[in-house]
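The instructor's notes for this session suggest beginning with a concrete chain rather than abstract definitions. Hand out the sequence below and ask the class to guess, before any prediction is shown, which regions might be ordered.
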Amino acid sequence: MTLAEVALTGDLARPSRLTVPDLFGWPQHRVRVVFECATSGAQQHWFAGPRLYDVLADAGPGFDPARRKDRLRFLIAVIGADGHHALLSWPEIDPDFAHAPVLLAVSIDDTPLDGAGPQLVLPQDRCGARHISGIMAIRVDGAYLFDGVASMVSAGPEPTAVT
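After discussion, reveal the predicted structure:
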C-alpha cells in the first residue's frame, strides 16, 4: 500500500511531508462528531488523531511568540485530494484564543486512513462543510497582502460630501 502524504508548507521554520503513521508521533485524541448534512441528514462518526495545533506548532509557525497578537494574522489553508478546501485562522486552534479541538484524523470509526490520508475534523462545526478527506496539503500563511490597505490606513477616511 502506498501511504498518502500531507505537505506542510508556508510560513514554517520546518516545512515537511507527513504520512498517517508519522501523525502517531503526537498525542492522540478521540472524538465523536455529529454533522448535520444538508443532503443526507445527521452523520455520526468517531475520529482519532493529533490536534492540528500540535502538529503545526511543532513545524514552527513564522510568528513572533513573544508578541501574542502577531499570530492573529496567520491563516491555515487545507486542501484535499478531491479539491475540497477549507480555511481556518490560527487563533481558532491556538490555546491562548479559541482552542478549538481541530483534529488531523488518522482513523474514522476505527478504520485506519493510511492510504487515503488524514482528514480535517472540526468537532465544533455544526455541519461538515469544512471537513476535508484525504488531506494533500496544509499551508500556513501570515504574509498575505491587501492591495492598497496600507495607503488607505495612512491616508485616513475619505471625506464624505454632505448634500
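Then share the key points. The CA atoms of residues 77 and 87 lie 5 Å apart. The chain is about 15% helix and 35% strand.
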